[in-house]
Amino acid sequence: MRDLYQRLALAPDADEAAIGQALSRCQNSALKQDGEAVLQEPERRAEYDRLHATLSDIGRLRARLGLSHGAHWQGNVANDFSLPPDNAISRHDELVDRVSHAVSLYNRWRLWRGSWSFIALIAIGAGIGLGVGFALGMRLGTL
């Protein structure tokens, strides 16, 4: 389906007068015939506008995902609803980056936690041993 609004240089909310002027300026007879059949009939235009909105949403989604048609489709009717790839980071990529960062922090904490737990266990054991030794030494020294 071709984008009649784009091909006729019209806004999707164009009134009847603007559509009539665009159709009278149109040099392509097939495009002019399609525009007259679709845009000048209220029921057909309402259906076309609903489909146009859906295809525009799909075009925006494809652009957001970085998808575009190959070079041989450029300038073709199949490319009417395509937009250039959006190089901004998507919400999904942003969330993946945040989760990856959180996982790396957790893994680093687990690595240090394991080492520090072992060191703390040895220190506590040594402290208890010294305390017991000191207590026994004091007791034996007093006897």
Structure summarized in a few sentences:
With 143 residues, the chain is mainly alpha-helical. The protein has 5 helices and no strands.
Question: How does this structure look, described?
Answer:
The structure is a single chain. The protein has 143 residues and is an all-alpha fold. It folds into two domains: 4-79, no CATH class; 89-143. The protein is 70% helix and 0% strand. It starts with a helix and ends with a helix.
How would the blueprint of this fold be written?
Elements lengths: L3 H4 L8 H10 L3 H11 L2 H23 L26 H52 L1
The largest β sheet comes out as: none
Mean pLDDT: 83
Low-confidence stretches: none
Q: Return the string of H and E elements.
A: HHHHH
